[in-house]
Prior knowledge:
The chain has one domain: Vaccinia Virus protein VP39 (Rossmann fold, 3-Layer(aba) Sandwich), CATH 3.40.50.150. The chain has helices at about 20-30, 35-50, 50-70, 90-95, 110-125, 140-145, 145-150, 175-185, 205-215, 230-235, and strands at about 75-80, 105, 130-135, 160-165, 190-200, 240, 250, 270-275. Strands 1, 2, 3, 4, 5, 6, 7 and 8 form an eight-stranded mixed beta sheet that branches. Helix 1 (about 20-30) packs across helix 2. It contains ten helices and eight strands. It is α/β, with parallel strands linked by helices.
Amino acid sequence: xxxxxxxxxxxxxxxxxxxxxxxxxxxxxxxxxxxxxxxxxxxxxxxxxxxxxxxxxxxxxxxxxxxxxxxxxxxxxxxxxxxxxxxxxxxxxxxxxxxxxxxxxxxxxxxxxxxxxxxxxxxxxxxxxxxxxxxxxxxxxxxxxxxxxxxxxxxxxxxxxxxxxxxxxxxxxxxxxxxxxxxxxxxxxxxxxxxxxxxxxxxxxxxxxxxxxxxxxxxxxxxxxxxxxxxxxxxxxxxxxxxxxxxxxxxxxxxxxxxxxxxxxxxxxxxxxxxxxx
Length: 278
């Protein structure tokens, strides 16, 4: 962990013998809510795939653009599944000035992410508009029917469902499309699904090999990782109408400025946002 002691240093039930995806993602973004086992593994996989930190930052920037775009579209409810540990520019911070006030439910099953989220929201006195629950994506009913979700989210109104850097941790055995269908069934027309996924189907040969080796390395963690191509990512949006510009690379979704043509991390993840029509 970071040098300063904090309430989440040793959460009950945390397995510190294996690196964890949420804590490693925090490390990729420059955060301090991780253990030495996470940092050691992170350094090892960064040597395998030097673009991991830029891709993580692209994911974060995409989430922030989607949230701002959704607020402009009139959405005032957000469910961020696989939210990870808190870093600057969280969903409830981006939506802080929305009128009427936006409501946010963060969801993560990892104890450090859950504990850190609780502390952050308490420190910011944000409990009236944001909450964090410890649940797993693979249990939709537990998330949708959780008392804290029910307290903040009105499922008769549009919701933005955020699944950023999440579904590449979901195997085919977990039936990801059926999971997404269950969430879709619970949402009102006008709701959105935002999704990103590591990929290498349009990467240069050297980078493709790096990504595949990176995925292989994650077999040593508590969160195995799977690579899918653009067509497979598009299938996750069955039942949703894709918003422009469709399934694109992370920096290409409604950027605030033109993407950098020299960005070597640009082609290493797909993203998209779908809207639920009437």
